[in-house]
Design brief:
Elements (H helix, E strand, L loop, with lengths): L1 H10 L3 H5 L14 E2 L4 E2 L35 H12 L7 H13 L3 H17 L8 H13 L3 H13 L6 H13 L3 H13 L6 H13 L3 H14 L6 H13 L3 H13 L6 H13 L3 H13 L6 H13 L3 H13 L6 H13 L3 H13 L6 H13 L3 H13 L6 H13 L3 H13 L6 H13 L3 H13 L6 H13 L3 H9 L10 H13 L3 H13 L6 H13 L3 H13 L6 H11 L6 H11 L3
Antiparallel strand pairs: 1-2
Helix pairs in contact: 1-5, 3-4, 4-5, 4-6, 5-6, 6-7, 6-8, 7-8, 8-9, 8-10, 10-11, 10-12, 11-12, 12-13, 12-14, 13-14, 14-15, 14-16, 16-17, 16-18, 17-18, 18-19, 18-20, 19-20, 20-21, 20-22, 21-22, 22-23, 22-24, 23-24, 24-25, 24-26, 25-26, 26-27, 26-28, 27-28, 28-29, 28-30, 29-30, 30-31, ...
Length: about 625
Amino acid sequence: MAIEFLELYATEMSLEALKEFDCHSLPEPTVSLLDIGTHKLFLPLSTLPTPLNAERRPFWNPVNSVGFNNNNNSLDLDDALNSFNHMLHTRPLPPIGQFNQLLGAIVKMKHYSIAISLIRRLHFLGITSSRLVKPDIYTFTIAINCFCHLNRVDFAFSILGKIFKLGLEPTCVTFTTLIKGLCVNGNVAQAVRFFDDIVWKGFQPDLITYGTIINGLCKIGNTRAAILLLKDMERMGSCQPGIVHYSTIIDSLCKDKQVNDALKMFSDMAGKGITPDVVTYNSLIHGLCNLGQWKEAMRLLSEMTTRNISLNVQTYSVLVDTLCKEGMVKDAHKVLDLMIQRGVKPDTITYSALMDGYCLHGKIADARKILEFMKARGCEPDVFTYSILINGYSKSKRIDEALRLFNDMSRKGLIPNTVTYNTIIGGLCDAGKALDACVLLNEMQTHGQQPDLITYATLLVCLCKEKRLDQALLLFKMIEDNGLVPNIVIYSILIDGLCKAGKLDAAKELFWSLPVKGLQPDTRSYNIMMNGLCKDGKLKEANDLLNKMEEEGCSANGFTYNIIVRGFLQNNETSEAIQHLQKMLDSGFSADASTMDLVFNLLSTDRLDPLCKEELQKFLGIT
């Protein structure tokens, strides 16, 4: 009952309840205002001690008499809560360090709200009782960490204000935890500003603090700023960057496809006497493989062997994935066998990459064997793994087997995500089962998975193809009702469906309303509307639309010209068709098979004007 009570209490805590943390008064909100719009952090930094030279004290080791031992890996939440209550009733009370150790264990279990509730209880006890068990800087740092994990960095900064008010001295861990909280919650700019402010006030960041900021900058794609910070570390000299800092930046450069810059940094790092590890090599090998620089990747693999750096599961997974993408699935399977022989246990990423390789080459039976093999070796497939095989079955038109696998996945307690649902809905649509796909859409929403525009686009195409226009229009309304904004792809599908259903006026109205909705027609939407007009014999409107398209700076493509040429040919306006044929050739496009069939059919009849016939023969190269 203790667990349920605390969970309920913690999750339902309102702002007012949280204020009780400081015995009815949290620090004023202005202490921790984050002005997102101007990227300013308002914090009473004038109260921050200068310089900060706090020593890191180890937590007290709990004694066995209270039922908690740090080496006991079987400790669960019930044990921790029982220990906490036991400690509160022990006389004399254990030192605060022992409570901190227990709170740290609860945080490792990810019960952040419960940890906050217990800290509040300790704090209240320290204020209202003569018993000396007052939270210290480590206790408050744990609270800050919990609030950051709960995405309440504002409350975390309120705790910092309380630390200053009590005259406690924040540690490096305290500030680093706040910086990490800002970064993880997407406020990297505020994290950098906070970092700069506290350094200016005399705070000496350690390697972990620098690493946190560098990682945050790299996560938002600001690798250049991370490199500048690394150079600042080197220039200042008091905190030299290590392998973690370099590897973070190298990985970010590789993800940005700036592998040459990554290799240069790798060389600079080695020149400074910093030995690369398997993480560094993995990032570079992955980056090189993604760019097709297989030879250079092999050189680095060889260098790893020379340096006695063992390949880990990530290295092998990268190799398996790359070989599969290069069409070398048999070689990828050999890599899987090799890693098992060398005692490296493949994970779901490794198996999934190989399964995807087999599916891409239509070898679904081999992919299924890998699924069974991984299960036999004790590696449980995840949602991503199942989605790969479901996609393979769907693309192979084996929708019944895809559905069986989908249901098997649900029975195992795995919750299909939006990608999985999109895959199976796409398979049902390809099989002409639009109504079954709609049923699955409802099931998807019932299970808490929100459809995206890909889901709706897939269903709209299918409904329009099966001439279920009324249902397509209802689905379109559902998109807007669910708070999604239809894009040009969605509108183009609907316009195409209206044209093919003979509702040309409705299609035209929707097409001309696009700019009002903030959307500009693209080449595909112009082509769809033009094709609808041509099919209905409205050639002048189609021709005007082509001119409008060019005026708006939207480039015509081969499909555009073939549509307009066929329209004129089918309506016996051969001279206009020939003009557009010539324009098509001048633009670097050629007639497709359908257009050529029309041209040959016309030449075989006597309906052509001799001059037009001569022009068409010239176009075909017939003398």
